[in-house]
Write a structure and sequence with these properties.
506 residues, alpha+beta, three-stranded antiparallel β-sheet, 17 helices
């Protein structure tokens, strides 16, 4: 052992003295600076200080402190899973992101499957996507932004582009627009090679197949209510839409369009066969109700479906209550029948509205008449669709407010006078006597139903329309409640129909 110190206050130490100092140091438990002042003190270590040091050394030997236990190693994979316990024992582990579950008994299963899942979890925000990661910004829940690592993925961008075309109902050729491609190049240079129409079409089909598979799993084992309707397009093609409503596990009403497809015709048996084939394709065997309008062909379709689906396993009461008639369509039949009594007054109001809306110059002339009559309204006259009574109600509601403006236009606008053949009667009222433009009402098949001469409404016509507008408002509000699709409407049926009956009796 080398000397502990090479300088001493009393002078140079001899070799023997150095050895004695080393021995005392070992006995003192490694204390390299004992309380000594001379060589004699070093040799004769019999004072109280040495005795005290010896006692402390013996105490340390007798009271040994046990070493702390080493903490058990915990895999980082547990930070991404929630433990599901049964009886105080962990049975399953659930991914915090995609909610996939794995067995997790401590003696049977390890964490290898958990670590492997993190590498492929589709919803894991920071998984390795085999690309160069860059810093990016993500909106935070409480406002502001968070800095996260991000990997550019061409496939994700391609999928997002296809979803944009679907959600915003854009034409597929939109992806080949020069302006859009320039925007993508500035926004993300790595996405400079924007997919073509053909690639986007394939991606849309892939999204459809994926969502269809998800919906099939969601509908499995559920009892659903169906609604369907058919119509003819302007190209004389027959279409049918089949919609499903059901309650999910969270007791929320869900609406899904199952099919939008063509049908050969509107016959009841054709509609029934099509609905049956679609239900078999979706593996749906639990139908609660089928809501249709009051067309006679739908009665035939319901009878066909009752006959074909009566023996299905999850049929309720032999489908005695399968057929539900559309309340909105019932109200529509009532209103259409009532419109016939005031049909001539409504036709005349429609004539003057059509004249005003037929050109910008006529509309500008009408606005000047509104300003002269000091009518304050943010609305403007709108033309209705003859086959939709609710649009007729909206047209009459606005037109009645501008009655004085139409009268002034009949007095001051020469084109208005010539078009309707206006002359002044003996009592001073302006009416259409002779002349005027002829209008033809053409059916969908191209045949002319009838021809009539357009005339301006009289004071009685305006009075009838004002009265009828108040009556139609009741039906309009009831139809809006019945036509809702995101909440249950059967609970408002009785009250609304009772109010309608009371008004009709009055």
């Amino acid at each position: 052992m080398d000397p502990v110190f090479d300088f001493y206050p009393g002078g140079d130490l001899e070799d023997d003295a150095v050895h004695e100092v080393d021995e005392v140091e070992v006995e003192l438990g490694g204390n390299s600076n004992p309380l000594v002042s001379t060589n004699a003190d070093v040799v004769d270590v019999q004072d109280d200080t040495v005795v005290e040091v010896e006692e402390n050394r013996l105490k340390r030997k007798l009271t040994l402190v046990p070493k702390p236990k080493k903490e058990r190693y915990r895999s980082p994979a547990w930070d991404h899973f929630n433990e599901i316990k049964e009886g105080g024992v962990t049975k399953l582990d659930e991914c915090k992101y995609c909610k996939k579950q794995y067995k997790a008994e401590s003696k049977k299963h390890g964490v290898s499957n958990l670590s492997a899942h993190l590498l492929v979890c589709p919803l894991h925000p920071n998984r390795d996507q085999h690309g160069q990661q860059n810093l990016s910004f993500k909106p935070a829940d409480g406002g502001g932004v968070d800095v996260v690592n991000h990997v550019f993925s061409f496939d994700d961008c391609k999928r997002a582009l296809a979803e944009m075309v679907i959600i915003d109902e854009l034409p597929i050729r939109f992806v080949e627009g020069i302006g859009f491609r320039r925007f993508c190049k500035v926004m993300q240079p790595k996405f400079s090679s924007v997919p073509s129409r053909q690639t986007t079409t394939r991606e849309i089909c892939a999204i459809h197949n994926y969502e269809r598979g998800k919906l099939k799993k969601l509908l499995k084992g559920r009892r659903i209510c169906l609604t369907t309707d058919t119509w003819t397009s302007i190209q004389n093609l027959n279409y049918m839409c089949l919609t499903a409503h059901f309650i999910d596990d969270n007791w929320k009403l869900q609406k899904r369009i199952l099919n939008f497809c063509q049908v050969v015709n509107h016959k009841g048996e054709t509609i029934g066969k099509k609905i049956e084939s679609l239900l078999l394709d979706w593996n749906v065997d639990a139908i609660f109700t089928l809501t249709v309008d009051n067309a006679s062909s739908n009665d035939t379709a319901i009878r066909f479906l009752k006959r074909k689906t009566k023996d299905w396993k999850r049929t309720i009461l032999d489908h005695d209550y399968l057929h539900v008639r559309c309340c909105a369509h019932i109200l529509n039949l009532i209103v259409v029948e009532g419109l016939k009594e005031r049909n001539e007054s409504i036709l005349r109001v429609r004539d003057v509205v059509r004249y005003v809306r037929s050109s910008p110059q006529r509309l500008e002339s009408f606005k000047k008449c509104v300003e002269k009559e000091k009518i304050e309204s943010n609305q403007t006259v709108c033309l209705d669709v003859c086959t939709r009574w609710n649009s007729t109600y909206l047209m009459l509601e606005v037109a009645v407010k501008f009655e004085k403006a139409f009268q002034r236009m009949a007095e001051e606008d020469n084109g208005f006078k010539t078009f309707f053949g206006i002359k002044e009667r003996d009592d001073g009222e302006l009416v259409s006597f002779e002349g005027g433009e002829t209008i033809e009402l053409v059916s969908e098949s191209g045949q002319v139903r009838y021809t009539r001469v357009q005339r301006i409404p009289t004071k009685l016509d305006w009075k009838n329309c004002a009265m009828f507008t108040k009556f139609l408002k009741l039906f309009y509000n009831a139809t809006k409640k019945f036509s809702a699709s995101l909440f249950v409407t059967s609970n408002v049926f009785f009250e609304e129909m009772y109010n309608v009956e009371v008004k009709i009796e009055k």
